[in-house]
Design a protein that fits this description.
With 266 residues, this protein is of the alpha/beta class. The chain has ten helices and nine strands. Strand 2, helix 3 and strand 3 form a beta-alpha-beta unit.
């Protein structure tokens, strides 16, 4: 059960930590589940056994994250948090189905080994998807663009989010939206709008260069970007956390009912 997906969130390939735990975005310092909690009104809970890194060593949540999350509770573990995200209409998957990689970072992926997931077929199966958000930034989006050039070139199929990162990757691949010409009773026909492409600030803690010397702003800035482009919420401050919670509740209540299971395991 659940609501039909309106947004597909794509990473590149799960990290070593994620593969070990069989959980998306499992690394404690990865911002993703903290951002989801801030948007949907809960807080990420430590997994069984506590926070550990990819080598199994005990670790702590960075202060720039834990000092800026919006909600003290309820605390949700992975299964509950992922269910809440799916129920809100967000599907999770990856651009790559498989690849050879040393470690967990995208630059270590062997390009010759890459095999792509069929995102176009997914969107055909779930035509309610009207937005694709790339969670790991421009590198993930560029892989998607390379694998889907023909689809991207389809007139009227895609639009671009209002962000420099999105335009940098996709402006050369996506033609402008054509002006519709309405004749006779053609206006009565239902035509799906374009899928909006959104290149997000990467949730990976490794994406830190823009905040050199100002690391305390990193999570706050990433949250503002995700709230604006993915969750369609106003960028929060601590003074209006209650307002953000209310907006999140309204967001969930307004989403369409129906649908089924649509998240890939990973």
């Amino acid at each position: 059960g659940g609501k039909k997906p309106h947004t597909l969130i794509l990473g590149t390939l799960p990290s070593v930590n994620s593969f070990d735990r069989v959980e998306y975005y499992a690394t404690p310092s990865n911002a993703f589940w903290w951002l989801v909690g801030d948007a949907l009104g809960h807080r990420r809970s430590p997994p069984q056994g506590g926070w550990t890194d990819s080598r199994g060593h005990t670790t702590a949540i960075p202060k720039f994250i834990i000092g800026n999350v919006l909600h003290a509770g309820p605390e949700l573990r992975y299964a509950e948090a992922s269910a809440a995200l799916l129920a809100a209409g967000y599907a999770l998957w990856d651009v790559l189905a498989e690849a050879e990689r040393e470690g967990s970072t995208d630059p270590k992926i062997s390009k010759k080994s890459e095999k792509n997931n069929d995102i176009q077929t997914f969107c055909a199966l779930y035509p309610t998807v009207r937005r694709i958000c790339f969670s790991s930034g421009q590198g993930t989006a560029a892989r998607f663009a390379k694998a889907n050039r023909t689809w991207l070139a389809t007139a009227g199929a895609f639009s671009l989010a209002d962000s420099d990162a999105t335009r940098t990757v996709f402006a050369k691949h996506v033609p402008p939206i054509p002006v519709a010409t309405v004749r006779g009773n053609s206006a009565a026909r239902h035509v799906e709008g374009p899928i909006e492409l959104c290149v997000m600030l990467s949730v990976s803690a490794a994406f830190a260069a823009p905040w050199k010397g100002a690391g305390e702003r990193m999570y706050i800035d990433k949250r503002a970007d995700w709230f604006r482009l993915c969750f369609r919420l106003p960028p929060p401050e601590f003074s209006n956390a209650a307002a953000v919670s209310n907006a999140a509740a309204l967001l969930n209540a307004a989403l369409p009912e129906g649908g089924g299971d649509y998240a890939a395991a990973g």
